[in-house]
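If it is no trouble, can you show me the amino acids of a protein and the tokens describing how it folds?
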Amino acid sequence: MHHHMSTQDWTAGGNSSSSTTPICTPIIAPNLVLITLLTASVLATDAKVYVAVYNTIHELDPNHWAIYIDDPATGPTIHQVYDDGTKYYVPEVVEKKPDSSAKLNHQCLVATLAPGKVAAARSLFQAHKCNNVSGKWNCQAWVEEALRAADSAGLLHFDSHAEKCLKYTRQHWQR
């Protein structure tokens, strides 16, 4: 969100008994405010990366996890793996927000992406391979691996606190 600041924003309003008395003339404050506004506008354009956690369909299944990129410039995308009953695979990108599903349980913010790195992160996630050998590997493992790969590639910084939270809630089984 961009804020337009008028001259009145920099001055102290109010009634003055003399028209020649200057209203408040800032000396340093405008520069600090301008720097703050510029910093806020740069940060506001960063994409946010979440892990979306969905409730299970069957009680024996682990919760479904997906990577959700909320990019103000190009829109939302969900990156995930599906299980067709015989193997895991990465389907096409879903261009929706996770809350479009009634099964969404919660979202966990895990990283931010600079505007110039969003496309590369999306490509990396879509190309990240599935492990169809391990009996403990599932969509949750894919999410962790894909986020670590994006971190290693310098595309994002996978927040260490968020990574610990995910490890704590990770379910190491398949149905």
